[in-house]
Write a structure and sequence with these properties.
two-stranded antiparallel sheet; 19 helices
Length: 475
């Protein structure tokens, strides 16, 4: 009798999810893990001292982990027990890959058939315009993720074993946690108060963490395209021609990522060159490598190797822009995405050159893509302004210690799911924690839901009535 009731209950839950749109299912799955994570983190077993954790701190931490942000209101290393840190690690992995991606991989492994509805949900998770190749993409995403995290985890475990003078099991735990956190662009660390500042000029940690962040931020769609057309291509052609065969999306992602990293590094190097509280006292090598790492991590990862609270205001403003751009679609990174930013820039440049359509790599970008990009930019701009204004009201006492640009920096960090902070997060009021939690959630899922919703609306238009055009004055 009990089994029958349980079966009916599960069936009702399944039917509920089947009635939702793909975008709604993605949102509900994220909310489900936020709720579960909040409850688990509130338990005394999750606290290092065996005490109950307040709902505001638990909720904030759960949202930050699921949305792979990295902002924290308590010291991760000191406050949470081993159980609590394991909960965080699971939330980070699920948040980075997406619950439906993991569930689909399990279904495939046990031989269960993937329905059209489930393929549409995976499409929403990866933010693709079509459902072609969803199963292949899912398999490569999971397998590639596990392989990269395994290799990086082993490398970091060996490093931490010798560097921190800890036992083997602890070093494996350190290596695993930080490999997952870096690849998922989460920014959580269990090293103490100063994140990676201890390793500010260490070449090994800078390269490993930077590689993990970039690979996670490129997006699984780019992975799939690169593997098929470059690594596994049997055509006897030059590497340049293989690269040319990549899709326009992959080319834009790779080139935009490269230029953002390079420009971010140069901005940090130039603006902070003489700042003794950040990189001013470093050698040229030290200034270069810390500038390089910050350029990579500030766009979505959340680690830091310098004191961000001591940055010049000009640097903070530049960082705000880069944080909002974030990583690339279909990956573990947040932000309005590199392609969104690139499409807008390409459209502006094409217009200034007198071209009627946006052109890039000898291809034309559809008007619908530009409209979608502007919609996402509009949402992000509105959320950034609204969030900053709300925090300036709820955290009014904090303005005695911090400037307005610091609040803007914090909001941009949450919205871009970056996780870097100038010291505001731990001082937030309970209302402020709720506001920032909502901003993190919108930042993680906003572009996905808007992008998919617009794609569905455009694909379902039938016999649309076209109105006559009329010019308006702009500029």
């Amino acid at each position: 009798m009990e089994n029958k009731k349980m079966g009916n209950y599960i069936e009702r839950i399944k039917m509920y999810f089947m009635k939702q749109t793909p975008s709604q299912t993605v949102i509900i799955s994220f909310l489900m893990f936020v709720g579960l994570g909040t409850v688990l983190l509130m338990l005394p077993i999750s606290n290092a001292k065996g005490e109950w954790t307040g709902i505001y701190d638990a909720l904030f931490t759960a949202v930050s982990a699921v949305c792979v942000t990295g902002l924290v209101v308590v010291n991760t290393f000191e406050y949470w027990s081993l159980f609590g840190k394991i909960v965080l690690l699971i939330l980070i992995q699920v948040g980075g890959l997406g619950f439906m991606t993991i569930l689909t991989f399990i279904y495939i492994s046990i031989g269960r058939k993937i329905t059209l509805k489930e393929r549409l949900i995976i499409q929403s998770t990866f933010n693709k315009s079509t459902i072609d190749g969803m199963i292949r993409l899912t398999l490569r995403a999971i397998r590639g993720t596990l392989l990269i995290e395994l290799v990086a985890g082993i490398m970091l475990s060996i490093f931490f074993y010798y560097d921190r003078d800890i036992n083997v099991m602890t070093s494996i735990w350190y290596g695993t946690f930080h490999a997952v956190s870096a690849f998922c662009n989460a920014g959580f660390d269990i090293l103490g108060d100063n994140s990676l500042m201890r390793y500010d000029t260490n070449l090994f940690t800078n390269i490993v963490f930077s590689t993990l962040i970039v690979l996670g931020g490129l997006g699984f769609v780019v992975w799939d395209d690169f593997i098929v057309k470059v690594l596994k291509s049997k055509k006897k052609i030059t590497m340049k021609k293989k690269y040319s065969s990549l899709t326009l999306h992959s080319k834009i992602v790779i080139s935009t990522t490269f230029y953002l990293i390079l420009s971010g590094m140069l901005f940090t190097f130039a603006l902070e060159f003489n700042n003794s509280e950040t990189i001013g006292n470093y050698s040229l090598y030290g200034k270069a490598i810390t500038s390089f790492f910050q350029s990579i991590t500030l766009r979505t990862a959340g680690f830091n190797t310098i004191n961000l609270s001591a940055l010049n205001d000009g640097t903070k403003f530049i960082y705000i822009i880069y944080m909002l751009i974030g990583g690339s679609p279909g990956g573990t990174a947040g932000g309005l995405k590199t392609v969104t930013f690139a499409v807008i820039v390409i459209s502006v440049l094409s217009s200034n050159l007198g071209k009627e359509k946006a052109e890039c790599f000898k291809r034309e970008i559809p008007l619908s893509v530009l409209q979608k990009s502007l919609s996402i930019l509009g949402m992000y701009t509105f959320t950034l302004v609204a969030g900053t204004v709300l925090l300036s009201v709820t955290e009014v006492e904090m303005l005695n210690s911090f400037n307005f640009i610091d609040l803007l920096f914090e909001t941009a960090s949450a919205l871009g799911t970056v996780g870097v902070t100038v010291g505001i997060t731990s001082e937030l009021t309970n209302i402020g924690k709720i506001i920032v939690s909502i901003i993190m959630f919108l930042g993680r899922l906003g572009p996905i839901t808007i992008g998919v919703a617009l794609t569905i609306k455009q694909s379902t238009k039938v016999n649309k009535l076209d109105f006559p055009e009329e010019e308006v004055l702009v500029g």
